[in-house]
Each structure stands twice: as C-alpha cells, then as structure tokens.
Write a structure and sequence with these properties.
Layout: H1 3-15, E1 27-29, H2 32-41, E2 47-51, H3 63-66, E3 70-72, H4 76-81, E4 86-89, H5 95-104, E5 108-110, H6 117-130, H7 134-149, E6 160-164, E7 169-171, H8 176-183, E8 187-188, H9 190-193, E9 198-200, H10 203-209, E10 213-217, H11 226-229, E11 244-248, H12 251-254, H13 260-275
Helix pairs in contact: 6-7, 7-13
Amino acid sequence: MTLRLLILAAAVLALVAPAASGKPQRIVSTNVCADQLALALVDRVRILSVSRMAIEPEISNLAEQARGIRINNARAEEIVELKPDLILGDIYTGKGANRLASTIGVPVHIVGIASSLDDVRKVIRDVAAALGEPERGEQLVAAMNARIAKTHSPTTKPITALVYEPNGLTAGAGTLTNDILAAAGLTNLAPKLTGQAYATVALETVVAAAPQLLILDDSYGATASRAQSILRHPAFRALEGKTTLYKIPSRLWLCPGPWVGEAVERLAAERARITE
C-alpha cells in the first residue's frame, strides 16, 4: 500500500463515524448491479458515488436516476477519498477498493450472483439488509412476485424458446435466464442444444432446432459490431413462418433485481400473443 493510500486510510478512520441511525449514509457502489440495487433501495442523498456504467441506459434500468451522482472507476484511491461508510461491489470489479476497505474497517457488501429467481430474491434481501432497509427490500420482492404471478396462464400448450445473444451465446440450465423463461411459461431449448450453463450455439443449429420463439438482445441496437451482426444473418430467413423473433433488453436479466419481473412479464405477454 502506498504512503498516500495509508494517509487517506487514516483519514477515513478518523473522519467517518457510524451514522446515528445505524444505516450507512455514505454509500459507494462500484458495479452496475450494485448501483441499481442501491438506487432502488435507498434515498439518493445517501449515495456518494456509482460506477461509470450506472448511467448507461442499455445496461442499467435506473440510468436516469443515476445521472448527477459522482462516477467512480472502482479504483482504491478514489474510493478511499470519498470516505464511504459502506462499499457495494462484486467479486470482479473494485477488488483493490474492497481489499483496502476491509483493512481499514469500512464495511463491504458483495452483491451476489443469481442463477434463479429465488437467488434474485435473496440478493435483494441481502443488499437491503446491508443498507439498513429490510422493509424496502421486502417491498421490492413483493412487487416482483406480484408481477410474475400475474403472468401465470392455465394454458398447457408448450411454446419452445431460445435466447440468442451476440456471438451466438445462449443460456441453458442453471441460469437466471432459464428460470425467467420457465416462469414466463416457455420451454428453453438451450439445455437440449448444449449441456453448459452458457455456450455458443452455431446459427445452423438454431435454424435446425426452429424454436417457436427466438429471443434476441435488443441492447445496443444502433451499433453494427461483429458480435451483433450474427443476429442479422440472412440464415434467419429460413425460420420465417416457423419462428417468431422477439427483442428484449438484456438489462432486464443482466443483474439480479426486481426488474427481472418485467422480463417475465414481457416474455409471458409474447407467449400469450403467439398462442392466440
């Protein structure tokens, strides 16, 4: 640790006192998933800084709410200078800041990874507890549950589906995407096409499988990257009359949070439209 960081760390210990309410009042989040949960669970005035991705509407569901809040790049030095009393992060970004915070006694809460809707509920509750807002956490979970419950349909007609993202990536068993599809009343074909949670599937395999609903990533629609170009491949024309193409923003299931209820809702509505 550099001398500058040692001095800054000492300053944090000297100047940051626990909030009288017991709730963190100087929250810094270093990851877009943490950003959104913080914005959804606490008053904006308690958030000192969010990650640079927080204001990107293609990735964050709360980009507008994040505008105007100081941006960080998850670097240890800049985080320490903010004198936070809680850091929300993940296991990938902001490792240096997380390590430094733990050595100087600043609480760090790592936002969990969700592989199911139950995991999403747990992540929301865990973050809410760390923020001192368990009641707000329960309200978010209840709202998500209500949204999902409204999509249930008595129909037993199976609708096959496949999520096909840039670079041909799809999500199989043991993923949040798979659980969302099931909650929407859709049968995910990915587990039959690959035995992995996430895998690349050849376009020819998709065409041969001919899912009734092919779900495409609607993020970055204005770009023309090579990764996105596969989604505009002429081979998709072979699916005409067999497959419905449906676009959905990946931000709705990229991070665990109540917004996954909207993903279920949108997909269930499309399922209902197809079965009419």
